[in-house]
Amino acid sequence: MSKRSLRNLPPAALDGQRALVRVDFNVPLRDGAVVDERRIRAAVSTIRYLREKGARVVLLSHLGRPKGPDPKASLKQILRDVERILGTPVEFIPDPATGVAATRRLPRGGVALVENTRFWPGEEANDPAFAQLLAALGDFYIDDAFGAAHRAHASTEAVARLLRPAVSGFLMEKELRYLGDALEHAKRPFVAVLGGAKISGKIDVIHALLPKVDEILVGGAMANTFFLALGFQVGGSLVERDKEDLAKELIAQAGAKLVLPRGAVVAPSLARGAERREVPSDQIPADCAAFDIDRATRLDFRSHIVQAKTVFWNGPMGVFETPPFDEGTRAIAEAMIEAGKRGATTVVGGGDSAAAVAGLEDKLTHVSTGGGAALELLEGKTLPGVAALEDA
Prior knowledge:
Helices cover 34% and strands 17% of the residues. By secondary structure, the chain is of the alpha/beta class. It has a 6-stranded parallel beta sheet with strand order 5-6-4-1-7-8, sandwiched between helices. The chain has a 6-stranded parallel beta sheet with strand order 11-10-9-15-16-17, with helices on both faces.
């Protein structure tokens, strides 16, 4: 898993060279404005280091899932934000095919941002000819886009095989350290907390984690499918009825390692949160749905988490974007912070869970910037964007 990193390159050799850096600036926009700039901020340490060493920095990223050029997905919209966060002017390169001269004109420490790589069909096709165009924009390659590392695209995979050295940036290095090595050689007790809507998206993760962890605490709507497997009624709760047999198998396989919620916060609907009440897991009323874990479960999960030496968390405990059904998810975040104060390694795996701990990143060991990539890494899958980099 060990890959050459930017810190392995002799700093003097970076001076005046063009660093082609794949970043993950796939940020949410509303009316053309950046709503959440964490992914841009996450790339700052790599970019700043390169600029300080006199490199000319050329940034590549995708944004959204456009089918060809689309002004709503143009990276031009985030240019001002990138300039503000980096504290330097950034030149915009609208087309990689005609951008080579612009990259050569950059001053030492200068920065350029290339238009959304997904505007060209060669990107998602991992096309060598398109990768060749991208490779011409730099003298060496750095992949700092962990959030896109599970995709074999031209800007994450093919270009890394063409342009050498090809190394990981500081963010990628940190992601691999905490999601790879820290969990592979976890200090015990090792507790995983899994939530979110579906078991189906987490089956492989559960299978991969079961032999490694001491306990898996399950919350969110995926707990309802386990309740079904135990013969409990789940009312109008979100549930995967076609996964009941699978849940039965997992319960049998996991034994005491699987810790399910003791109860749920139920309500007739999300909109009727004022009518919420707490019920034991086997007493969810037919006319209600479960929207969060109850207080007894929060206390139970907390006691497991604060005694752990390694905690990995992925997926909310309830419908956290609709208060008051965010209390269970917030309780997990607080328990993880407490575990960290007691010396535990606390890792949050991207996606919704990262959104749930927004603003608390500095109180946790590591909050991943990649949802899908984090889960695939945990499942033991090879990430193409990582595999293409040079081994240490």
